[in-house]
Amino acid sequence: MCGIIGITGTSVVTDRLVDGLKRLEYRGYDSSGVAILDDRVIKRERAEGKIKMLEARLGAHPIDGQTGIAHTRWATHGVPNETNAHPHLSGRVCVVHNGIIENFLDIRQELSHHEFVSETDTEVIAHLVDEALSAGLPPIDAFSQSLKKLKGAYALGLIIDGEDNRIFCARAGSPLAIGVGENEMYLGSDALALAQLTSNLIYLEEGDWAVLTPESYEIFDVNDKAVTRPVTIISGGPAMAEKGNYRHFMLKEIYEQPETITRTLENYIDEFKHAPNLPHELDFTDIDRIILVACGTASYAGMVAKYWFEQIAGIPVDVDIASEFRYRQPVLSQKALFIAISQSGETADTLAALRYCKNNGVKTAALVNVMTSTMAREADIALPINAGPEIGVASTKAFTSQLTALAAITLGAAVSKGVLSAARQEALIKSLIKMPRQVKDALELDGAIEAMAFDFSKAKNAFYLGRGSQVPIAFEGALKLKEISYIHAEGYAAGELKHGPIALIEDGTPVVVLAPFDALFEKTISNLQEVVSRGASIILITDVAGAQHIGDMVKNIIIMPTAHDFTAPIITTIAVQLLAYHSAVHLGTDVDQPRNLAKSVTVE
Ligand code: M6R
C-alpha cells in the first residue's frame, strides 16, 4: 500500500528511482512522483496514473541529481490526481509517505497560517518539518521533533532544500528498510524495491528514524537514542520479480504452483519418514484452541484449515477476519495458539491482531511468505510458506502454499495430540506428496477453462457454491473473479443458497459448483439441481468419479485430477484461479494491477 524508494549517492538517481517504483507498483498505482536534490535544490515531477505516466512526464521535463525520493500511491485521503500525488512539498521540505496520519486535521488547524494545497494527510508532515526549520531548528531536530507530533502509521522519506545529500526517514506502523551500498544508501518499502540496488538491508523497527548520507546511516529509536539494527542479506537478486515469457505475473504465479507447493512441503514434511516435520517451537501438546486471523484470500486459507484442524487434530478453531478481531474483544485463553496468515506479513489489521494477542499473553505464530516482514519478526514463531515473491495483486501461489503449510501443520498437531493412527497419517501424507503432480495435471486444463471463460465473462453476476472444505474455495473463486474481472460474484455454502440468495438466480445466471466426488457430493448436486431448475447456467468443477456420476446432466464440466478429500480444496483452487484469470483477460482488464487495489494493505 503505497511504495517508497530513496537513494542518496554520488551518481544520478532518477532512472533508478523510477525502476524501483516499477518494482513497487504492485503496492499502489493511482499516481506517482519523484523529487530530486539537484545541487541542493529540490526539483519535483508527479503524474496521475501508472508509473509510465510519470516516465512520460520525466521525458518531457527531465530532472536528476544525486539524492532523491519517489513514491507510488494507493489513495487513502484525497482523490488520485496529480495534486494529491507524493512527494508533497512545503517550503524547503519534500516528503513521501506510506500510512495514515490520523491527527492530520488537528495539525492542519495548528498550522492554519500555512497554505495547504492537497487533500492528503501526508502534506502536514512537510509543513510540520518546514515550520520547525523556520523556527531555527537544525534539520535533524526539526525532523525528530516533528515525528513526535504525528499520530497514526507512517513509513516516510524526506529531503530538505538547501541541504547536502541526505535523506531523513522514519517508520511507525508501516514497513521501511534501509539498503546499504558502496558510497550510496537506499530507502525502500520492501526488499523488492531495492533488489536491483543492494542485497544488504536493515529493517527499521517500530518508532525508529534514521539519517542517510552517501557514506553513512545513523539510526535512532523512538526515544532518539542512537541504536544499531542488524543487516540482513537478501537472496534472490534482481531476477526475483521478472515476468519471464508469461503475459501476466498472475499467470506465471499460477503456473509456478507445482514448484511452490513442493517447496512448502519440503519445509513441513519429512518425505522419507512420511511424517510431519514442524519447527520444535510449534508444539501443540498444551494447545487447546487455535485462533486463525487473516484478511481476504489468506482468511479463506484459515477457513479451510478450520475443517482440517477440527476433523483431523480435534482442536477447536476460531477463524477471524483481522479487521474485526481486536475490536470485538475476543475471549483469549493462555492455552490458545494464535496464527496470523499473511502473504506479505505486513497487512495492518492482521499485524494489529497479532500484537493484540501477544500483548494479552497468547502464543503467536505468523505464517508468511515474506520472512523479513514485520509479522515474521514480531511473532513468537515465524512459519515460512516459501512461495517466492508474489507480484500479481490477486493472490494465487501464496494461497495454495498457505493451504499446504496449514495441512502439514494440522498433521503435526494431530500427531502431538496422539489422535492420528499410523495408517491415516500415511494416507494423508501421501495425499500431500501427490499434490504437485496433481496441480501440474490440473494446469493441463488451462485451454478448456479458457474456452469456458469466454461465455462466463459476459455475465454481470456469478455464484460459486461448495460444501465442506470447498466452501472457502467458493469464496476464493468469487473473490478472484471480482477483483480482476470486476464481475460481481458471491461464494456460498451450497446448502445456504435457498435461505435467500437463490432469489437472484434467473435464466442464464452462471453458477460455478465445486463438487469433487466426496461424502457431500450428492448433497451438493441436489443444490445444483435447485439452481438449474431456476435457469442457472452451471460450470461444474469435479473429478473423474463426479463426472461419471453426473453423466450429461451438465454441459460445462471441468474434470480435475482425482485427489484425496484432504487435499481436494487445493486442487479445485487451480480451476477457479484459471477461470477468473481467463475471464479477466477476455474482458481486457489490468490483471496484475486491478483497479482500486494494492498488494500489501498497510493501512486499516
Ligand atoms: O498479504 P496478505 O496475505 O495479508 O493480504 C491479505 C489480502 O489483502 C489479500 O489476500 C487480498 O485479498 C488479495 N488481493 C486476494 O487476491
Structure description:
The structure is a single chain. The protein has 604 residues and is of the alpha/beta class. It folds into three domains: 3-244, Aminohydrolase, N-terminal nucleophile (Ntn) domain (Glutamine Phosphoribosylpyrophosphate, subunit 1, domain 1, 4-Layer Sandwich), CATH 3.60.20; 254-433, Rossmann fold, CATH 3.40.50.10490; 444-587, Rossmann fold, CATH 3.40.50.10490. The protein is built from 19 helices and 27 strands. The strands form five sheets. An eight-stranded antiparallel β-sheet has the order 3-2-4-1-10-9-11-15. Strands 5-6-7-8-12-13-14 form a seven-stranded antiparallel β-sheet. Bound molecules: 5-amino-5-deoxy-1-O-phosphono-D-mannitol.
Return residue spans where pLDDT drops below 50 for at least 5 consecutive residues: none
Tell me roughly what share of residues is in helical segments. 25-40%
Number of DSSP-assigned strands = 27
Shape: globular
The major beta sheet can be summarized as: 8 strands, antiparallel
Mean pLDDT: 94
Major beta sheet, strand line-up: 3-2-4-1-10-9-11-15
Second rung of CATH, namely the architecture of the largest domain: 4-Layer Sandwich
Which small compounds were modeled alongside the protein?
5-amino-5-deoxy-1-O-phosphono-D-mannitol
What is the end-to-end distance? 11 Å
CATH homologous superfamily name of the largest domain? Aminohydrolase, N-terminal nucleophile (Ntn) domain
Helix/strand class: alpha/beta
Number of helices: 19
CATH topology of the largest domain: Glutamine Phosphoribosylpyrophosphate, subunit 1, domain 1
Radius of gyration: 25 Å
Q: Please, how many domains?
A: 3
Q: CATH class of the largest domain, anyone?
A: Alpha Beta
